[in-house]
Each structure stands twice: as C-alpha cells, then as structure tokens.
Amino acid sequence: MKAVRLSKVGNIENLELTDVPVPQPDRGEVRVRLKASALNHRDLWIVQGLYAKIKLPVTLGSDGAGVVDEVGKDVDRDWLGKEVVINPSLHWGKDLKAQQSGFRILGMPDDGTQAEFTIIPAANIFPKPVHLSFEEAAALPLGGVTGFRALFTQGYLQKGESVLLTGIGGGVAALMLVMALAADARVFVTSGSDNKIKAAMEIGAQGGVNYRRDHWPRALEKMAGSSQIDLVVDSAGGDGFLHLIELVKPGGRIVNFGATAGNPIRLNLRRIFWKQIAIQGTTMGSPTDFYNMLQFFESHKIGPVIDSVAELADFRKVYNRMLEGTHFGKLVLKNS
Ligand SMILES: NC(=O)c1ccc[n+]([C@@H]2O[C@H](COP(=O)([O-])OP(=O)(O)OC[C@H]3O[C@@H](n4cnc5c(N)ncnc54)[C@H](OP(=O)(O)O)[C@@H]3O)[C@@H](O)[C@H]2O)c1
C-alpha cells in the first residue's frame, strides 16, 4: 500500500510516498481502509524535528475516516464494512481529567493515517456521522476533540458568552469557530491575515483583529465593547499571550493547548491573581470528549471548515501550505 513515510527529520522534502506492506490487525484491533486523512500541525512539527520523542521511520497522520476491512481476534465482526471515523487519542486511561502514562497519539510512534490502510484499537473507531462526507469526517478527529475539550470540558463555554479564538486560520481554531457558534456564543477572532478574519465573519464571527498590527488588543477591546471576553482559547502562546491576560474580563478563563509562537517572556502574575483569571491547559481529549464531540457535530448538523482537499500523492504541496500558514481550516488528503 502507499503511505506518506518519514525516515529522517529536517524538512518536507524528506517525506516520501512509499510502498509498504498492508498492516494486519492484532487482537483487539481493526484495519481501516482509509478514504481520507488530514493534517495537523503536529505532523509538521515531527517533520521539522520539533516534537518530543520522535521515533522513525513512521507513517504520519492522526486524522482519518474510512471503512473497516479487517478485524483482529476478540473484535465484533459486525464492524466489517462499517464507515468509521478514528479517535487518535490512544490509551487515554480511566481518569477523564488528564491522559495517563501509556497515552500516545496515532501517527508517531504508531503508524498513522496518511496511507491507504491503518491499524487502530477497536475502541478507537466510531461510526462516521451520516451527514458528513469521508473528507469532512476525516477533518474532525484531532482538532475536533482538542477544540471540543478546550471550549466545553475545560473552558465551560456557555450560551451567550463571548469567546476569543486566536489564530483563526488554524485547523483547530476553525473547528472551534463552528462549535462555538453552534453553542450560541459570540465569537471574536485574531489572525495574521485580514482575509481570514473576513472569512471567519462570513461564517458567523462577530469580528476580529490582525495580531500583526500595532495596538490590536485595544482594537479588540473596543470591538467586544461591554460584552467583554469571558473565555479565550489560544494555541499560539508567545508574547501575544500577555495581551490575552489583559483582554479577558475579571474572573474570566483562558484555555491554552499550544505554543506555536513559543513561550511568553515575563508572565505578569500580579495581573492574573488580581483579575482572578483561571488559566487552564488542555491536550487532545478523553474517549468521552471524542464521543461528545461527534454527537455535537451530529446534533447541530454542522461540519468542519475545510481549506482544501488534495490527492494523497499531492501530500507535499499540502504540507507546504501548512508551512506557509496560508490555509484557513483543515487540510485534507483523499485516497482515490
Ligand atoms: N495540545 C494538543 O492536544 C494540541 C492539539 C492540536 C494542536 N495543538 C497545537 O496547536 C497549534 C495549532 O495547531 P493546528 O493543527 O490548528 O495548526 P495550524 O492549522 O497550522 O494553525 C496554526 C495557526 O496558528 C496561528 N498563529 C501563528 N502564529 C500566531 C500568533 N503569533 N498569534 C496567533 N496565532 C498565530 C495561525 O493563524 P492565522 O493564520 O489565522 O494567523 C495559523 O494558522 C499548534 O501549535 C499545535 O501543535 C495542540
């Protein structure tokens, strides 16, 4: 079968579409013939050697949807032929509060989804929402579960609240946009691109500011007006994070799951305690979060924001698009 393989970190040129043996499911596992997969920034961090504990060679990819075509021992054979979406949080453990030792993310060290087939524990497959195509379903897993947990499980977003989503062009941020809108929140965004702010507003965001401009926090404060920001969900970090502490209202919440722009220097602890702000970290999600995320998309009949869909063979172009940061929403690969 064809698979996008990485055997040496460095740059996108090191990725290759290679022929590898079709994998066989072990006890408790299934094999999924993938119809579509998607990219996450994690894939790029791994290619660049910027991820922890990299083990190579590996087939990249955490997101996928397809059809179960083989089951291992002790797996219900009724799964055969079923259309499924994959939960990439492997071995989360029993405590819903945080992942336990043994937790892994599909797509390194285990071979992932940017391939024709993948192997996954039967506990990690879920029926594909019927209102979504394979390409749409494949855009949900990693970003959907991370965004759902950030907004609701950790961020306690309520109807009518104002939420600020930073870097709205990102795959997870754009998924949070549709979820927060479906939850009847008022959504404000930041982006390094005016066009992406416009695109977010066309979907339903109230407004947004360009974080590359001077005085953007002031502009956002004015925009939010008296409603103020109840919740900020951020995955950029960097010094922009210091502005988020100023922007969120007293008693508000900031949830963070990434550090695309690095660590903030000089965190102002006095502002955090005086304003009684809750700062909450979050990563991926439990099986319950994944199930609830799928239910949320199904019950609201919503779908992900997809930047583009390309053939698996065109993977390098798609990785380059993520590297340039020109995308708005999820980058999807399909198997013809
Ligand atoms: N902990 C977890 O479980 C988890 C899960 C998923 C993702 N993550 C992390 O979250 C981040 C986003 O992941 P992704 O897959 O959505 O990546 P992505 O699709 O590549 O999106 C990254 C986005 O970051 C935004 N950005 C870059 N610099 C920024 C800055 N200085 N201020 C505000 N926004 C900035 C950009 O938005 P604009 O184009 O709009 O400017 C860009 O589109 C990555 O760091 C990733 O590793 C963590």
What does this entry look like structurally?
There is one protein chain. By secondary structure, this protein is α/β, with parallel strands linked by helices. It has 2 domains: 2-142 and 285-334, Quinone Oxidoreductase, Chain A, domain 1, CATH 3.90.180.10; 155-281, Rossmann fold. The protein has 10 helices and 18 strands. It has helices at residues 41-47, 134-138, 141-153, 171-182, 194-203, 216-224, 240-247, 269-274, 287-300, 315-324; strands at 2-6, 15-19, 29-38, 58-59, 63-71, 83-86, 89-90, 104-105, 117-121, 125-127, 162-165, 186-191, 207-210, 229-234, 248-256, 278-281, 306-311, 330-334. The strands form 4 sheets. Strands 3, 5, 6, 9, 10, 17 and 18 form a 7-stranded mixed beta sheet that branches. Strands 13-12-11-14-15-16 form a 6-stranded parallel beta sheet, with helices on both faces. A 3-stranded antiparallel beta sheet has the order 2-1-4, with no helix packed on it. Helix 7 links the parallel strand 14 (229-234) and strand 15 (248-256). The longest helix is centred in the last third of the chain and has 14 residues, at 287-300. The protein is globular, with a radius of gyration of 20 Å. The chain starts with a strand and ends with a strand. The relative contact order is 0.16. The model has no long low-confidence stretch (mean pLDDT 97).
